[in-house]
Amino acid sequence: MFKYSATSKERLTTCDVRLQRVFNEVIKYYDCSIICGHRNEVKQNQSVAVGNSQVRWPNSKHNSLPSKAVDALPYPVNWEDLQRMAHFAGFVLGIAQGMGISLKWGADWDKDGQISDHTFRDYPHFELIDDESESTVRHRQRGDDRS
């Protein structure tokens, strides 16, 4: 079984509990690093300036606290190995789906299974599709209509 470094653990704690649940399950089977969770205004706008994001503060899902997005990559990190990143993304999305958590991957923004139809591919990026609270998700999974 794999485990996160202290830095990855710290970054993951800045994320929505649903992302924490998904990635705490992923690490059991797939060695990975958490690159980024929450981004403050300075870091978000720097990400735009260097071309790593197209969304300025405060409009990224990384900007809420807890963050509705996380950047994660297989370990050891190799920024050139896009095939490995895509394999990892499929694993992450499968784990999330099995947990009833809807995620969008940054290289397939429209979720059609095609990467080539996107001009901006953010391979490490995973975001929650909706902004439902964890309690709302739990109620729906139990069949409780009070959400």
Number of strands: 4
What is the approximate shape?
globular
**Strand coverage percent:** 5-15%
What top-tier CATH class fits best? Alpha Beta
Order of helices and strands: HHEHEHEEH
Structure class:
alpha+beta
CATH fold naming = Muramoyl-pentapeptide Carboxypeptidase, domain 2
How large, in whole angstroms, is the Cα Rg? 15 Å
Given as residue ranges, the uncertain stretches (5+ residues, pLDDT < 50) are: 134-147
Domains counted in the coordinates: how many? Answer: 1
* DSSP helix fraction: 25-40%
Mean pLDDT: 91
Count of helix runs = 5
Strand order of the largest sheet: 1-2-4-3
Summarize the structure.
By secondary structure, this protein is of the alpha+beta class. The protein has one domain: 2-Layer Sandwich (Muramoyl-pentapeptide Carboxypeptidase, domain 2), CATH 3.30.1380.
